[in-house]
Structure prediction request, 241 residues.
Amino acid sequence: MMALSENGKLPPPQHVAIIMDGNGRWAKNRGLPRTAGHKAGGETFRRIANYCRTIGVKYLTVYAFSTENWKRSQEEVSGIMTLLERYLTEALRDMEKNRVCFHFFGDLSRLSPKLRKLCEDTQSRSSEFHEVQVNFCLNYGGRDELVRAARAFAADVAAGKRSPDSLSEDEFANYLDSAGVPDPELVIRPSGEMRTSNFLPWQTAYSEFVFMNVLWPDFRPEDLDAAIEEYHRRNRRFGGA
Ligand code: IPE
Ligand code: IPE
Ligand code: MG
Prediction:
């Protein structure tokens, strides 16, 4: 067992990734519209991002909207987009207080110009904060990310900057949205579903997965502590004996 840190807790992994799932069921259980669940999920995200900064997680990657989530009703999708606009506007306003550096993973080109501008402003204006980096996955799909990376590499080959034979795993990783970010040691999926739903397929090849029976709006800092404790009970072998 590892040594406890000052607060009496096990040290967190440097990179935690979370599939923020269960908003719809949370709302349904309360007889509320699904959008109310997304709003509550946004509050949870705010609390957990701050908690990650407090306990010393360096990178927090969250799945907020997938390339498949466009299949939902127009009402739900536009509700989520409106909440995201509101959320990022507040993040820009409260930046000094929250001290979180934002990055965005995913194909932002399909978002509205307004939301895209908010993403760009949030990323550039938060770059001075170095305690915790949040990678916000928006219109993100793991397969889409790999295809975009393959296209970018092919374009470099066509331009004569690269040769196919020279490509290594490390170099390919530099074409991904996560370029420069270490792989997550721990992936948490609340809501009881036990699948990855196209989240970070390349980066999680050797991550530890913790599936939890709590809906995302109900997820508390203690749940993150519990997932970290579970992570410390795992025996990571990376293919070794
Ligand atoms: C996750 O919650 C949020 C998004 C996918 C945008 P869900 O909306 O998937 O909630 P459930 O899974 O229906 O409960
Ligand atoms: C994954 O959850 C995407 C996000 C949390 C943003 P989904 O609710 O979309 O995944 P499925 O449909 O249960 O696989
Ligand atoms: Mg879901």
